[in-house]
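Please check this protein record:
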Amino acid sequence: MKRKRVFSVLMALAILLMSITGCSSKDVVSQGVTDTTIKVGNVAATSGAFATVGVPFNAGIQAYFKQVNDAGGIDGRKIEFVHYDDEFDPVKGKAFTEQLINDDKIFAIVGHFGTPTIGATLDLLKETGIPTVYFAAGISDLYNEDASTVEKGQGLFPVQPIYVTEGRLIVARAIEEHDAKKIGVIYTNDDAGKDLLSGVENQVEKLGGDFKVVKEQINPGAADVSSAVLKMKNENVDIIVAASIQATFPTIVKELINKGVDKPVFTTYSNADATTISNFTTDYVNASNKFPIYTNAWVDLSDEEEVQAFVNGMTEFGEPDYAGNAFAMAGWIAGHFMVEGLKRTSGETLNWENFIKAMEKEEFKIPMGGTVNFADYQRLGTQSMSLLKISDDGSTWENAKPIEDLNDILDRVEGK
């Protein structure tokens, strides 16, 4: 409450000052903006279990900003990037987010990272109205068809797919690829796992007929998932959805191999990285019960020109070791969206109101991906994804299907 009162007082003073000087809110720059700099920042896990995601993700953001800064910046302003490591802890994440807004006085958040911290700070972001560009997670609370006011989340701009939508897409792909009817779901008891399950159940309900969901819950980061795997085996499901993110997904795959289960596995785009699957590559290569493992991806690695632009950018302006890293790609895309929003505000006073309106002006093309549109107060993330499959040697993800819209896939499978 104290933070809210302080913010309200500051807003009241700003409004009073504008009335005295005859300025409108569109004519006053927002915090974090000077004649020569634009200060932005994020909170991300760059140590601990999720450092393999957070470190390359931030490296991608910083490489994109350095490329822009070295070319002269935005209207002569260089982008400054402030970062705090929350170790994937929502308490730390919320405290650091408050610090970015209230103490560092950043203009915008870019690449808000991780389901726990995002969930813990959404009310804060709406309360302050700070623009937040790109969320490195797909929790259902980000899905919004009416962000018509700041209080309703007008300043929030999700780009990645929302987990609920992805769960629906997984069902459609499972039917198309394996004619699945009985769908097993091993899901973690967190937002990511439960939202993916919700999407699976939502789509199965829409399809009706003989489709069935068999589900079993596990704890995030669980070391023993044998009970859940045995349930999938005993129920003889057609496919298994590993509804979990990086820390738990390898454990599920290893236990499926250990228990002799050979059903196809589908998982979330959050696991679409070679670093994640390296945790079970040896087990997979040596398995006698080899089974296909799929994930979704909202970036298109077949777009050679845009992929090469990313590789060149990471090599020249960032960390060359991350030039093939999917999480660095995500960070690169986050940086791109922030910069494009700033460019769209060019010629106008750089403040939150003008920036938000600029983001809503027209559709964005996602580098190495499809499109996303924030017009008409939509905050849906992208709904177009491709299908990837683990290579036979278990070392990498390979393209299996191109980027397609969920509705196009459903049109093909609803008659099955």
About this structure: The chain has two domains: 2-161+303-382, 164-297+385-413. Residues 1-23 have pLDDT under 50 and may be disordered. The chain is about 45% helix and 20% strand. The longest strand covers residues 397-405.
